[in-house]
Design brief:
Helix content: under 10%
Number of strands: 20
Shape: globular
Radius of gyration: 18 Å
Order of helices and strands: EEEEEEEEEEEEEEEEEEEE
Oligomer: single chain
């Protein structure tokens, strides 16, 4: 696990109009991201590591909440879509060793006028299973730790997105990990169950590494846990496995 950080503030950033067809091009120094119609390129160089990846969407984008506009509770509203399954290929240079790599990626794009929520936070999960289905879910907490917004989305093999009611999801924490750097006590490992007429899921999510904390006060201004998890379980009675990514905020002061 390794991370690096940079910050670039654009107070007068140009927002493309609704008819823009030019995709996106972003650069922070020599870190670059470019994309158009589900074909993306990312490149970055940092101490001991260099990456140059091409990503190709294997499914159409998911407009969350059906129209791409979601409520984040007391934090207001935001626009939000994801490309939940992208084929990745390219080059990773690890301490001078060049590796040709392939994999599966997930791309999130969320933007809006976010309202600050002192003391609050969220737990966010992306799930990619080897039966060509995906899930996205999150819990937003207020400053007291109370969950004020829950979102559960299931994307089937044909790319159909179904928004599930929060009542069909049962999530339990299997353990915790305390950061030696910030002292934050993060959830670590989860058991997820979904039971609805057309879908029965029982999944266990296990962090690939306990310590995937990002202490990035110089860029985002906070510290949080964000990292990879492996997944084992069943979907409609059939064994499945997969990969996921989890983001945990609001645990570190």
């Amino acid at each position: 696990f390794f991370y690096a950080q940079r910050r670039l503030t654009e107070p007068n950033a140009v927002i493309p109009n609704a008819t823009s067809t030019g995709g996106f091009t972003i650069a922070v120094g020599d870190w670059t991201m470019q994309g158009l119609n589900g074909l993306d390129h990312i490149a970055a160089e940092m101490p001991n590591y260099t990456l140059r990846f091409t990503l190709q969407a294997r499914k159409p984008p998911v407009l969350h909440n059906g129209n791409g506009l979601i409520s984040t509770g007391l934090a207001g509203f935001s626009y939000y879509y994801s490309r939940t399954r992208m084929a990745l290929s390219g080059t990773l240079i690890d301490h001078g060793q060049t590796l040709q790599v392939t994999g599966t990626a997930w791309m999130d794009h969320q933007w809006g006028n976010f309202l600050p929520q002192a003391g609050g936070g969220w737990d966010w999960f992306s799930i990619q299973l080897n039966n060509n289905t995906e899930m996205m879910l999150y819990f937003i907490r207020d400053s007291t730790g109370k969950i004020v917004s829950t979102y559960v989305s299931y994307i089937d093999a044909s790319a159909h997105d179904t928004l599930l009611p929060a009542s069909v999801l049962h999530m339990s924490v299997l353990g915790h990990w305390r950061s030696p750097v910030t002292g934050a006590n993060y959830p670590s490992g989860w058991r997820l169950q979904v039971s609805v007429s057309h879908l029965s899921l029982a999944l266990t999510l296990t962090p690939e590494l306990k310590d995937q904390e990002l202490v990035v006060y110089q860029s985002t201004g906070n510290a949080y846990w964000e990292g990879a998890v492996s997944i084992q379980g069943e979907s409609n009675g059939q064994p499945v496995q997969g990969e996921g990514y989890v983001e945990l905020t609001g645990y570190a002061s």
